[in-house]
Write a structure and sequence with these properties.
About 75% of the residues lie in helices and about 0% in strands. By secondary structure, the chain is mostly helical. It has one domain (about 1-75). α1 (about 1-15) runs antiparallel to α3 (about 30-55) and α2 packs across α3. The longest helix is centred in the middle third of the chain and has 27 residues, at about 30-55. The model has no long low-confidence stretch (mean pLDDT about 90).
Length: about 80
């Protein structure tokens, strides 16, 4: 789910920065900055989602300490 949300964030940041900017109250930054921030958040969220998928795929073959970390990372 986080991978999909990350991809959506990247798409919105690259293609709809003006629309996102129009939703904000008056701010001192421009639409490109809003788009860049949205892309950066999308990349971060996508990486967390990919890490969750990797951890879930390895869950059965992990030692106990790694299963604890995986359960902590899970949504």
């Amino acid at each position: 789910m986080a991978v999909i949300a990350g991809a959506t964030g990247i798409g919105l940041g690259r293609g709809a920065a003006g629309w996102l900017y129009s939703l904000l109250p008056p701010v001192e930054i421009d639409a490109a900055a809003v788009g860049g921030a949205t892309v950066a958040l999308g990349i971060g969220l996508g990486l967390v989602g990919a890490l969750q998928l990797l951890a879930a795929a390895r869950y059965g073959r992990q030692p106990a300490w790694e299963r604890t970390a995986t359960a902590t990372l899970a949504p």
